[in-house]
Structure formats: structure tokens, C-alpha cells
């Protein structure tokens, strides 16, 4: 267990290490009775799949948006079947940490999801997001049809032409094949682990900034 007396020190330390290294043995021992993943009925809803670094942060952004009904953390982009967090975080698969976002198109569009995705991570860094580095943290949009593919490519072109970022976007745009949900203890990780040093030092500042910038798109419970 991490004591309160050393949390400030660890918060600084965890700014320089990867998401994969921020999980200790205690959290690996969580069971289904310890953690209840709350999923709304997603039958018939479309979904988008995105990879933009550590899925703890990416999940927290999307689940705050009006019209988003469920966000599942998991793995996608590789060929390995039933990958585990231990394998993916160590770079032993071709998968990236990703999220599957179920949404109501009457409340939020796929275009808006794409815009939020690009605004909440650095799409110009290859195989890296902040302290998290490796191919498992690469930036990807997984499209499910030709319309989505064109929308994403057009938006990337727009961002590059507008000079939104100092460097050129290196986000992969590739067809969706399969999504593997992550272990249960990763679901809704940000909310359920507020004292995790990585969450406190890396994720929380990003999520707070997101809430300030997207106040008009937040669900009521996230408006402060």
C-alpha cells in the first residue's frame, strides 16, 4: 500500500514512468467482486474504436461526453488472440491500448468523437504519449466503413493544413478487425482509483483540462 506521507514524492516520480508500470501487485489481485463494471445497454448502438496512449485517460475523456453510452478499455490493432495487459503493456503483441466508444448518434456524431480524440492526445508523436512509450501506445483510428475512413483522413488533412500541431500527424488510419476487452480492473479505472499515483499526477490534470475545454459537451454529473 502507498502511504499518504510518500504520495507527493511518488506523484512526481510517476510523471516519468509509463502507464504500464503504475500498476502494483495489489491491483492485479482485484476480483470480480471487488470491481463492478457498469455498462449500459449498447444493443443497436454504433461504436468507434480509438487508440491514443494509456487507455485510462482515453476512457475518462469519452465517458464524460453527452451521448456516449459506454466506453470499454481494451486492445486492438494486432493479430494475437485474447491478449493480456501484461503482454500488451510489455510490447509483446502488436496490439495497442484502445477504447471502444458506444454512442447515440442522435446526441453526438462520429465526427465529434474524432474531433475529441485528436484534441485529447498528441497525434504527432510516434509510438509515444507523454511518459508512455512503445508501439502499444501508438495513435490509431480504427474505421469500420469507407465513410468513416474518408471522414478521418479529411480531418487529419484539415488539421495538417491548418497547422494545428507543430509537427505532422502520424496517426494510423486502419480498418477495424477485432477488439479485445481489457481485464475487469481496467474498466473505469480513472474513477475507481483516484489515489493511484499515475492517475493523480498524469491523468487527473489532463481530465480536468478536458472538462474545462468541453464544458458544453459534458454530461450533467461532470459539470462543476
Automatic annotation (TrEMBL):
Residues 1-25 form the signal peptide. One of its GO terms (molecular function) is peptide-methionine (S)-S-oxide reductase activity. The keyword Signal applies. InterPro entries: Met_Sox_Rdtase_MsrA_dom, Met_Sox_Rdtase_MsrA_sf. SUPFAM superfamilies: Peptide methionine sulfoxide reductase (SSF55068). The active site is at 54. Keywords: Oxidoreductase, Signal. It comes from the Bacteria. Residues 49-198 form the Peptide methionine sulphoxide reductase MsrA domain. It catalyses: L-methionyl-[protein] + [thioredoxin]-disulfide + H2O = L-methionyl-(S)-S-oxide-[protein] + [thioredoxin]-dithiol; [thioredoxin]-disulfide + L-methionine + H2O = L-methionine (S)-S-oxide + [thioredoxin]-dithiol. Its EC number is 1.8.4.11. Has an important function as a repair enzyme for proteins that have been inactivated by oxidation. Catalyzes the reversible oxidation-reduction of methionine sulfoxide in proteins to methionine. NCBIfam families: msrA. Belongs to the MsrA Met sulfoxide reductase family. This is Peptide methionine sulfoxide reductase MsrA. It comes from Pontibacter anaerobius. The lineage of its organism: Bacteria, Pseudomonadati, Bacteroidota, Cytophagia, Cytophagales.
Amino acid at each position: 500500500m502507498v502511504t499518504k506521507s510518500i504520495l507527493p514524492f511518488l506523484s512526481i516520480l510517476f510523471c516519468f514512468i509509463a502507464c504500464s508500470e503504475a500498476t502494483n501487485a495489489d491491483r492485479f489481485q482485484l476480483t470480480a467482486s471487488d470491481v463492478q463494471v457498469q455498462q449500459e445497454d449498447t444493443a443497436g448502438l454504433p461504436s468507434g474504436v480509438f487508440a491514443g496512449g494509456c487507455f485510462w485517460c482515453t476512457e475518462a475523456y469519452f465517458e464524460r461526453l453527452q451521448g456516449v453510452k459506454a466506453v470499454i478499455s481494451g486492445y486492438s490493432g494486432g493479430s494475437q488472440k485474447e491478449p493480456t495487459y501484461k503482454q500488451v503493456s510489455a510490447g509483446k503483441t502488436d496490439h495497442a491500448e484502445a477504447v471502444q466508444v458506444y454512442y447515440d448518434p442522435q446526441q453526438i456524431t462520429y465526427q465529434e468523437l474524432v474531433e475529441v480524440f485528436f484534441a485529447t492526445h498528441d497525434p504527432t508523436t510516434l509510438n509515444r504519449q507523454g511518459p508512455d512509450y512503445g508501439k502499444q501506445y501508438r495513435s490509431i483510428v480504427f474505421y469500420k466503413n469507407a465513410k468513416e475512413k474518408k471522414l478521418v483522413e479529411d480531418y487529419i488533412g484539415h488539421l495538417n493544413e491548418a497547422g494545428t500541431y507543430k509537427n505532422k500527424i502520424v496517426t494510423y488510419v486502419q480498418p477495424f478487425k477485432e477488439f479485445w476487452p481489457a481485464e475487469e480492473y481496467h474498466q473505469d479505472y480513472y474513477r475507481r482509483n483516484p489515489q493511484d499515483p499515475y492517475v493523480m499526477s498524469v491523468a487527473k490534470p489532463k481530465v480536468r483540462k478536458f472538462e474545462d475545454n468541453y464544458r458544453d459537451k459534458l454530461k450533467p454529473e461532470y459539470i462543476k
